[in-house]
Amino acid sequence: MQYLIIKNAIAEQIENGMLEPGHKLPSERVLADAFSTTRITLREALNYLALSGKVYKEERRGWFVSQEALIFNPAQELDILKVCKKYNRSYKTELIDSKRILAPKMVADTLNLPPFSYVVMYSRLIIIEGRKVAVQYQYLPEALFPSLATMDNDIDVISLLKEQYLLHCPSLRVKVGVFPATEGESAVLNISSGSMLMDIHQSAINNNKKGYLLQVIRCCHDVIEIEIK
Amino acid sequence: MQYLIIKNAIAEQIENGMLEPGHKLPSERVLADAFSTTRITLREALNYLALSGKVYKEERRGWFVSQEALIFNPAQELDILKVCKKYNRSYKTELIDSKRILAPKMVADTLNLPPFSYVVMYSRLIIIEGRKVAVQYQYLPEALFPSLATMDNDIDVISLLKEQYLLHCPSLRVKVGVFPATEGESAVLNISSGSMLMDIHQSAINNNKKGYLLQVIRCCHDVIEIEIK
DNA sequence: GAGTGGTCTAGACCACTGT
DNA sequence: CAGTGGTCTAGACCACTCC
Asked: Measured in angstroms, what separates residue B125's CA from nucleotide D19's C1'?
């Protein structure tokens, strides 16, 4: 199988440090020529390489060498940017949207909200080392955070929680899966529609079974490794 | 984009119950004809559909409709077959291999073993509803289970642990990721080389920091959803 | 042995990116 | 505007599965 040979050849170049994290690979046509094959076969090799987390693709921009994965413990940590800091990675977030909505079923179920509850939702784009790597959604029940309903601006949800609630919360409930990107996520992350994202749900529930935060992180799978201790 | 239209059309058939879990889809050539396209484009649609966990492929056998995912809590449960029982799914395991080996670095690190420790390793194939869905590896330090070294046969590791150790273990340490199948795994699972598998590491460490089990489950990603409470 | 999926060729056109 | 990736066509041959 030619595509496996090509995949391994490129993987070796990366492991030997010939291609540094973040760098762009030569264009598909150049690589196809170099391996005396067609673009279809070459793309097959790159797609498999991407599954292994060694390279990633940005829509219409090309293929890039992945950084080493960040190890993240979603049962104890809400703030993924803190992990970036630990790894000395540059990072940035951008507010995509914030709004007050009727709690969707998934949110209401997770946070044990009564019917017709409103939640405030923030969605943010997470950018690490200049790469758009994840979308983060935070849902806060309006009943517990009445002041939020009147705020349009970005706020630091995690600090807010720490002040008000987090001390009473022994640990987070976590759900992890792998699901394809929605249209919207593909657009903001610059990835092809339907690519696979790692899906991390973290919910903070107090001892009275009241949920005060659901955070959903949808992240390119080569970026994060999950470890729960 | 034609392939997205095809993907959605097939997804709709599944959601409407026209295609039942476990059933085989028509052949690629038939489907390509039905959508007036080429096999390449049709395969692209199916590949994306597979990412979303709605269908899966068996090597050279065809495409099948996925079952609903099992929800599994790896922080509290070692035995995935118990979960099958809960969901009323038929299941079976087959011993692939059992041997005594020098602990690989990953195992020694996880279980805090001294250099040159031996471990006993069992690998098993997990079959649910007739489908080969996962490979399970169990590593037990020989020092803690001296009787195992002389045994060739299959044993129920989980029962053994429960008897000897598990009562002292408050919870398991878990690591989750997404990694491609190795050659060997592809072969036993009947999936294409390099397809994506969900990777679940569970380690049982006692209060003296002695590790007495590392279990690694490598599972088709449409089969399991992970939930940690 | 017929049919299937796995792999590959050799092109093509379009929309978009980067300069 | 040149070059890139995204998508698609219309074939082909092989190895394997299933009957």
From this structure: 28
